[in-house]
Each structure stands twice: as C-alpha cells, then as structure tokens.
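Workshop exercise sheet. Pairs work together: one partner reads the sequence aloud, the other fills in the structure field after running the prediction. Swap roles for the next sheet.
Pair: D.N. / O.F.
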Amino acid sequence: MSRENRKRLLQLVILLVGLAAIAFAVVKTVNDTQEHVMPSPASIVVAGGFAIVAVLASARAWVALFSDLVPTREDRAVLRGTLYLAQLTKYLPVGGVAQAASQVTLARSVGVPLKRSTVAVPVSAIGAIAGAATLGAGLVFDTNLSGWVRLLALAGLSSVLLLRRQFMARALDLARRFVRRIPESDQLPTQSDIFMFYGWTTLTTAALCTGYSAMVYSLDPHVNPYTVFCAFAMSWVIGFIAVPIPAGVGIREVVLVALIPGVGTAPILAASLVLRLLSITAELLGFGVNRLVTMRHRMRAVDGGSRAPVDAAPPPEGRTAV
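Structure field:
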C-alpha cells in the first residue's frame, strides 16, 4: 500500500471513530437538554458564531507551531485539516489522550517529523492552559468569591512564564536523562511561534467564554457576564487538566457552579449543554470547509503547473527557435 493510500486510510479510520464518538455525545447531550430551559435563540446564534471563531483559531494555533514546515497556504490548510480531524476524537472515553495521539499521528502522515509533532503536543497544552488561565485571572476582581479563590485565580498569570522556550528546553533535557526516547530540546518551536500559539489559543478560549456568557445571561439577566466569562475560562483549565474525561464534560460544570454561586445550577448546565452541541457542529463545519479549501489549493497548484509559460510565443517566420 502506497504512503498516500495509508494516509487516506488512517484519516478515514480516525474520522469514523470520531464521528461515532460525536454521535454518542450528541445523543446524550440532546437528551440532557430536554430537562432544562434553553437559552434564547438570539444568544444561541451569538454563541454559535463564537464557537466557529474558536474552532478556526484553535486550528491556526496548531499550525503556528510549525511555521518553518508549512510555508504555503496549501501546506497550512493540510495541517489545519489534521487538527480538525483530531478534535473529533476528544469525545472518546479516553478524552484528551485520544486527541493528542491523533494529532501526532495525523501530523506525521502529512510530512511533519515525528519528533516535532511529539514535542508540539505538550507545548500546545502549556500554551492552552496559559491562555485560559490568563483570562481566568479576572476572577480576582470578584469580591463575592473567597479570598483564596481570587488569589488562586491571580496566580494563574504565572503560567505565562512557562511559555519561555528556555524553560521548556531545560524540562526536556531533564526528562531525557530518564527517558532517552524523548526528543531533544532543539525540536521545540521557536519562541515567536510559541507566543503566536499563545495568542491564537487565548482567542479560542475567549470566544468560547463570550458565547457561554451570552447564553447564561439570557437565562439569568442578573448575572455579571464578566464573572461568567472569567469563570468559564478557569473551568476550562480544570477540565483540560482532567485528561481522561472526554472534553472535560462534567468537571467544568462543577467548577462553574462553585465559581458562580449567585446563579442556579440549571442555567449553568443548560448553557454548557448547548455550547457543547455548538462546538461539535463548529468542529464538523470546520473540518468540511477546510477539506474544500485544501482541494481548491491543490487544483490551483495543478493548473499552475500545467499552464504553459506566458512568454512562450512562437518564433517569427524565417527563424528557428533555439
């Protein structure tokens, strides 16, 4: 079997597994939503738009870690496609483990060296946590929370220090003393690429926070949208760290109930359920649209390669072309 056929088979298998996991998640979520009062249609539309922004930003964040390997628009579109596909597997029972494994495998299938993609996964995890923790630090201004909770939220800003490439390099070198199979620190992305990833992933979380806040506000107009925004960011961090839980389901809701005591449990759960459905829809949409974009880039490349040079005009009569 050729390399191209193996790549297609791998992508097909991951797609089918991901779709099966999504189907289960959707059915369960839809059943759960029937027990709650839903957010207003207008807020759902707003949240849907931000869910799409979040998916697009997350794909660009992943590509930012390989700027030296994807110089063309087609290359970037192909690599974004691997992220869109890998995201579908996060709803499996093993949660983030499946997504991380899929990202590494799919990136390798499109030409990214295994060492680079392997190192990029923990870098992306650190960047994602730092981005969400930065937004969650705003809880320090919520006087309704306990002092230790506000202090803990503010401490989240220190996670930005972990984005320093030299710290990551030291951590890798130390880990290699115990596990020689860990890639060398020279496989780390550049510092500018790490900061670029941080910017995109912070936008990803901010978009989800905004959409969630809009829906909760539609259910309880007395809530402070700013508090909900920051609380969702902090709950995202906790849910992300809970790797075995599929997409952090359940963990984030518990954290949100604790961080927004003035709001009933029902609005928090209802908004969470709807956002989950919107995120799944946005991920599927992103995957499908990116496939069309990739095909368009490839068709342009083929047309450009087969087109005759513009200056290849026939020689004048009586002359022989050299």
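Discussion prompt: The two ends are 44 Å apart (CA to CA). What would you look at next?
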